[in-house]
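[Meeting: bench + compute handoff]

Bench side (C.D.) handed over the final construct sequence. Compute side (W.E.) agreed to return the predicted structure before the next meeting so the bench team could plan truncations. Sequence as handed over:
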Amino acid sequence: MTQEIYRSCASIAVFRPSGDTFEMLLVHKPRKRDDWQLPQGGVEEGETCEQAAIREVQEEAGITPEIIDTSSHVYQYDFPASYRRFRPDNVKGQRIEYVFATVDADTKVQVDDEEIDQYMWVLRDQLPEYLKRKEYLDLVNKLYSDGLELIEKSKS
């Protein structure tokens, strides 16, 4: 029997200045559940997590942010049984690693209108309006805090 594995993914927490604080980019996938998320996708063979994160945000949002660091946080989950039925492979879920990045305040986002159909720049207190899965919301809140801390450190 083939051993089940987790698909290696990269995600990127992109921040832009907004007044005296920073907003975080969320993208919307056209599906019924867990439709808002950070840009993310699979790490292809030969890619680093950082390279995959930049490629994904370029594909999904049409932007090329500046990476400021990587995160120690990892989000791993199993695919639901209803989704597994359609996967003819041994991938049982995803293991997502995170990268932090920034863009200028006037950066224009252009979604691909296929995989991603909307985007939103949000402040931390707006995250619960978009992220419904508690574990994911908690993680993105941590990423938001860590990202702001890194941005402040990079200024000094």
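W.E. noted at the follow-up: The radius of gyration is 16 Å. C.D. will use this when planning the next construct.
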